[in-house]
Design brief:
Layout: H1 9-13, E1 18-24, E2 30-38, E3 43-48, H2 57-70, E4 73-74
Length: about 80
């Protein structure tokens, strides 16, 4: 997706962060968002589209529904 998620690998290995992909089912699983989650705080820290762009409104709504379903908080965009 042309963003530097690899920089988070060491934090994932230490279970300090968790990286998720939001995909579109009807487009062969095409990733639309990469989501960073702080597992200790149960908070979505950030979400980015291709090339580090911010999520679009529809993508944010789906992410927020998932967060609510899983009991997660969503941090303010940074």
């Amino acid at each position: 997706m042309r963003h530097c998620v690899a920089a988070h690998a060491k934090f994932c290995a230490r279970q300090q962060t968790s990286i998720w992909s939001m995909q579109i089912e009807n487009q062969c699983g095409r990733t639309v968002l990469t989501i960073e989650l702080d597992p200790a705080q149960r908070t979505i820290c950030q979400a980015r589209r291709k090339c580090n762009r911010l999520p679009q409104t529809a993508e944010l709504e789906v992410m927020k529904r998932w967060a609510a379903q899983e009991g997660l908080k969503v941090a303010e965009p940074r």
